Amino acid sequence: MYDIKWIRENPEAFDKGLERRGLPAQSAAILALDEQRRAILIKLQDAQSLRNTASKDIGKAKAAKDEATAAKLMADVAAAKDIIAKGEEQERQIDADIEKVLSVIPNTPRDDVPDGRDETGNTEVRKVGTPPKLGFAPKQHFEIGEKLGLLDFERAAKVSGSRFAFLKGGLARMERALATFMIDQHTARGYEEILPPYLVNRAAMMGTGQLPKFEDDAFKTAGAQELFLIPTAEVPVTNMAREQILAAEELPRRYVAHTPCFRSEAGAYGRDTRGMIRQHQFDKVELVILSKPADSYANLELLTSHAEAVLRALELPYRVMALCAGDVGFASAKTYDLEVWLPSQLKYREISSCSNCEAFQARRMQARWRNPDTGKPEPLHTLNGSGVAVGRALVAVLENYQNADGSVGVPSVLQPYMGGATRISPLA
RNA sequence: GGAGAGGUGGCAGAGUGGUCGAUCGCGCCGCACUCGAAAUGCGGAGUACGGGCAACCGUACCGGGGGUUCGAAUCCCUCCCUCUCCGCCA
After folding, report:
1. Percent residues over pLDDT 90 in chain A
2. To which H or E segment does residue A234 belong?
3. Known active-site residue A423
4. Does nucleic acid strand B have an atom less than 7 angstroms from the CB of A53?
5. What ipTM was assigned to the predicted interfaces of this complex?
């Protein structure tokens, strides 16, 4: 969400940001609404002011038993009331109009974000590790899992539908081991472990920017109480700061949360239909940082390096991509994606996305800090990143650690979490 | 699910129709005293929006929304939330 004052003062920068995202300029239309709003406000407040002073004088006149003056003043107030009622209605309307326009405008990409319309404009920042030489034709992760008898999409289709899976035995355990390992690694670096609600209200979804624009992507409860299944732990965890004013000493706050994530994948028909790459439900370990604005880009580098550390520890080859202006998410000003190597696809695939949303989400949820330089509450900066997607990490381990005989090696850092097992074999 | 009690500024807690954006206390900031600190004294301090070059002025906000009234933190309706007891339950 934009600060309308900022648009007023920086209309060119605002339109430039929209243009970089491939959207038409909107500052003129928004500022016209803003002017209308102020004209309405001035009228309304004048009338309210008149009513307030007259009402006080009525009190005084009555106390002085001056009924004639009181009666005259009451007539004045009656006249002002009509203006007030109309003005309040107009203000409500114009506020709603402005909110409607602003709430669907994405964040401005930061200057150092590369130009580009879509993912083809993303640029590689660095590449770490080398793809394994397997010496045989690599299988896809779902072939490996099904052959082991530990991954079952057909049963899941009967129970839940497409894009769900049952994990069994060693695979289920490895998923759990991955998540626990990741959490342990992040808490050791000072992140506070959070177990948040998996259902959130509309305001929370608005706060982080999933709503109002992307309602189709979310699962929603059908009962009397409207709740959304979280598409990422970013939503509940970032919203912990909603309507708070944090002291400067409390920043940065670093949180790690392991949760299931639920996505309708409404626009993904036909993409990644087989396997676990794109599911309606998947687990993710999420990192969230609440930062002072001045530190937020240093924190983005740090956050990204912490997500990378997971892949390094698992010895999975990956690369870091800087998303271009046309590809950064709605709420983000700058995003790095981590992409992990999948031998069966001979491709790097997204496994983490690390974003600095600057004040965009903070303004939506009124998350502030008290700036000691000004003494005033100001929006803080919010960052989030996957550290990392657990389901996709499992996919990457299956493919990169597969053996010719169909078994799968266990990365050494995971072995302590799996009772010392060094490989996954079929269920006995 | 049933019964009751509440939601007021960073915290705690007054305020039941007018001069209340709101007493007092704690905490916070500044100043004085002190070598320094503590204690004490004096002073300051909410948030948002609008107007103004500024000093400053105005408007709104006492859980949300609506109503009564010339005037609402205070009265009425409604919704939400919290707490206590009972029931049920992992």
Report:
1. 68
2. helix A234-238
3. no
4. yes
5. 0.83
